[in-house]
Write a structure and sequence with these properties.
Elements lengths: L1 H9 L6 H5 L13 H19 L2 E11 L9 H17 L4 H17 L14 H20 L24 E9 L2 E5 L2 E3 L6 H12 L5 E4 L6 E6 L11 E13 L11 E5 H4 L5 H7 L7
Parallel strand pairs: 1-7
Antiparallel strand pairs: 1-2, 1-4, 2-3, 2-8, 5-7, 6-7
Helix pairs in contact: 5-6
């Protein structure tokens, strides 16, 4: 018996491995469990159960901003500072090529009048006619400057709250009129979350359903910049719905071709100081934390 055992022990172990590979146990497809995979699975199941039984409705809203189109008016202090900087730049600046050419032409003309000028001194071969052309060029610029009229900073469109072309020197925010229970309120564009989409996709859908195709916006990031929770009126509550949780996403208006469109009473473009007239105080407190601009 000992001899047989010694012979088996001396045989290579590799000879016996193919026999184990052909056993049904080798093809059962069992994978070892890890603690991390079990935790992730339990977390997903827990979130799914909480979402099904949660009395809060998930919403996504868009804080769509139209940046200033023109610079704001300077206050008296800024005007004095700008004048001082302009004077310092003028004193420290050097002459441009056109100014140097005017000085050369003036000196050449003075020497001509004093009969102290030799045409062979012209290295570039310029004629007397060139001296007149430089002055004519300045006269042409001066004439264009007198006929130039800058665009008006205040227009009739400023009175149209539905136009994104109003208050060009301010930063504007888009509001939309939405039904909340039995009441219509002015809010940031929002939509209810649907199963299978992210909150960012919900925010994009809220904006796409509200605005026209001519409006294009760029979203700033994938994560929300704020959240607001409110309860519905008692008459609108139910056993499964108590209120909503709104997650805000930032976006910048990049293109708008509705300049001459008809007024739209369901949307408004408002500055920060105008928002307080249309938003509820509690809602305004949440929104003003991430509003850009004055």
């Amino acid at each position: 018996m000992a001899a047989h055992c010694g012979m088996m022990a001396s045989r290579p172990l590799l000879r016996y491995l193919p026999r184990f590979e052909r056993t049904p146990v080798a093809n059962c497809g069992v994978r070892p469990f890890s603690k991390s995979s079990l935790c992730r699975s339990n977390l997903r199941n827990k979130l799914a159960v909480e979402r099904q039984h949660s009395p809060w409705t998930l919403m996504a809203a868009v804080y769509l901003q139209r940046p200033p189109v023109i610079s704001a008016d300077l206050n008296p202090v800024e005007q004095r500072f700008a004048q001082m900087m302009q004077q310092m730049e003028l004193e420290k600046s050097i002459l441009c090529e056109h100014e140097l050419r005017l000085l050369e032409d003036a000196e050449r003309l003075r020497r001509r009048q004093a009969d102290d000028y030799n045409e062979d001194e012209d290295d570039d071969g310029r004629k007397e006619q060139d001296i007149v052309l430089t002055q004519d060029l300045e006269d042409e610029w001066e004439r264009k400057l007198k006929t130039f009229s800058p665009a008006a900073r205040v227009t009739d469109v400023d009175k149209d709250l539905s136009s994104s072309w109003r208050l060009l020197s301010d930063s504007l925010v888009l509001l939309s009129e939405q039904q909340v229970g039995s009441t219509k309120l002015w809010l940031l564009p929002q939509a209810q979350w649907r199963s299978g989409e992210t909150l960012r996709h919900t925010a994009e859908r809220a904006l796409a359903c509200l605005t026209e195709p001519a409006l294009k916006a760029t979203f700033l990031g994938q994560a929300p910049c704020g959240v607001y929770k409110y309860k519905l009126p008692k008459t609108a509550r139910s056993d499964t719905t108590v209120g909503s949780k709104i997650f805000f996403f930032k976006a910048i208006l990049t293109h708008d071709s509705t300049r001459n469109a008809e007024p739209n009473g369901s949307i408004m473009w408002l500055s920060k100081r105008e928002l307080q007239r249309f938003l509820k105080p509690a809602y305004m407190m949440k929104v003003e934390r991430f509003i850009l601009g004055p």
